[in-house]
Write a structure and sequence with these properties.
The complex is a heterodimer. Chain A contains two helices and six strands; from the N terminus they run αβαβββββ. By secondary structure, chain A is an alpha+beta fold. In chain A, strands 2-1-6 form a three-stranded mixed sheet, covered by helices on one side. In chain A, helix 1 packs across helix 2. In chain B, helix 9 packs across helix 10. Chain B is 30% helix and 17% strand. Chain B is α/β, with parallel strands linked by helices. The chains are: A alpha+beta, B alpha/beta.
Chain lengths: 113, 305
């Protein structure tokens, strides 16, 4: 259940930002989660409420922007979009793919009072 | 936060020394924290994978929790202040992992992070490997499990130092735990550190520990399509050790298919077949380790010869 640890990371970032930027309430935490990253958005949302309780992030809404998975196809010599790691290249059907994007797990922005 | 284990909720405990059995409170420097293996949690039991979905199964019998593009930006203006953050969620772990990596490099230590399902044979493989390699290299082992120090005891029985990390409710080792455990090992000057992660093919994939590479141990009893079922871990690993190869004949195990599936997920993954029980294939694994060692720390290799 590493979503718990990820939520602790999110709350830690929010608390650090609160220290630097002087806000007292967070309304929205906007995340960027890659399609090939190590997290299920639903599980993250479920955990966040529990982890954020009694912190400055309590009550904040988690908003998740999912970014597509991209890979470099060695056979086609071009970047292609993939939904999962084991998917073949949509152009040539091969598996000679190196993932180039979609692994992000980032806090993009905060909406605060 | 506990400054010894780096845990935020007392979720992990690291063996403080192997001669005594956690008599917390005698001469520890961490002021009043009691690492009682994570019983006092109020969050560990919300393991509610996929219970609150609003999307319908799109294939008969398949509820694909990973496919839902959850959440979208809400249109319209808000009077709230927007703060651009742009920080990695695992940034803290990644910084600590970078610290570990720098320490391993300074000590000339080659660190491997062994990952697998529970029961794939990581510990048996390690017991055999450290016994065979200990004459050539200084070796230390960090053992991760939810509970018990059974695995570390098995390693210590070979004469190789081992530190057990109990993750409590945690499902993976993180860089802070490994850094603290490494402090408790003897100096491994120019040697090898084996980190045996918690048996789990999902979560440990995301957490860099500062290792040179991950080695995924897969056993012939697990089914050829495991690399497709748990692609993140096979994508994150440099080497796949196919263990229990001695059982392959009675299992109708399809080696070629397993390798094909692993390379769909990770075209660059190296593959070796081994048996921790019979020793089959282990010399090739040791040769692989020596090659990695020669590539990273030529001085240590010369010293060992």
């Amino acid at each position: 259940m590493h979503e718990m640890a990820l939520c602790e990371g999110i709350v830690g970032i929010v608390e650090e930002e609160a220290g630097k930027r002087a806000f007292t309430k967070v309304n929205v935490v906007c995340l960027e989660i890659g399609a090939l990253s190590h997290v299920a958005p639903e599980a993250l949302k479920f955990c966040f409420e529990a982890v954020a309780a009694r912190t400055i992030a309590q009550g904040a809404r988690l908003e998740i922007v999912e970014t597509p998975g991209t890979a470099w196809c060695m056979a086609c010599s071009k970047t292609v979009e993939i939904g999962q790691r084991y998917e073949p290249c949509p152009s040539c059907g091969g598996y000679q793919l190196q993932v180039t994007g979609g692994e992000e797990m980032r806090v993009r922005e905060l909406e605060v009072d | 936060m506990c400054t010894v284990c780096g845990c935020s909720e007392g979720k992990a405990s690291i063996e403080h020394a192997h001669e005594h059995h956690h008599d917390h409170g005698d001469d520890h420097e961490h002021g009043g924290h009691h690492h009682h293996h994570g019983q006092r949690h109020d969050h560990g039991h919300h393991h509610h994978h996929g219970g609150v979905h609003d999307h319908a199964p799109d294939e008969a019998g398949l509820l694909d929790c990973g496919a839902n593009p959850a959440g979208q930006k809400i249109a319209g203006m808000s009077s709230d202040r927007i703060i651009q953050v742009e920080r990695d969620i695992l940034g803290k772990n990644d910084r600590l992992a970078a610290d570990n990596r720098a320490r391993f490099a300074a000590d000339g230590v080659l660190a491997f992070n062994l990952v697998s399902s529970p029961g794939a044979g990581k510990t048996s493989l390690l017991v055999r490997a450290v016994s065979d390699l200990k004459a050539s290299f200084a070796i230390g082992v960090i053992e991760g499990d939810q509970q018990t120090s059974n695995d570390a005891e098995r390693i210590r029985a070979t004469g190789v130092p081992a530190i057990q990390v109990n993750t409590g409710k945690g499902c993976h080792l993180d860089a802070a735990m490994v850094g603290e455990a490494y402090d408790r090992l003897p100096w491994l000057n120019g040697g090898i550190l084996f980190i045996e992660n918690v048996g789990n093919l999902v979560c440990p994939a995301a957490f860099d520990l500062g290792e040179a590479c991950k080695i995924v141990v897969f056993s012939t009893t697990e089914g050829e399509d495991k690399p497709l079922k748990y692609p993140d871990m096979f994508a994150a690993s440099s080497l796949m050790l196919i263990n229990k190869i001695d059982l392959a004949p009675v299992l109708d195990f399809d080696l070629a298919k397993t390798i094909e599936y692993a390379r769909r997920v990770n075209p660059g993954i190296e593959v070796l077949t081994v048996s921790a029980r019979t020793g089959e294939g282990l010399p090739a694994f040791y040769a692989w380790i020596r090659k990695r060692m020669a590539a990273t720390t030529p001085a240590a290799m010369t010293a060992a010869e």
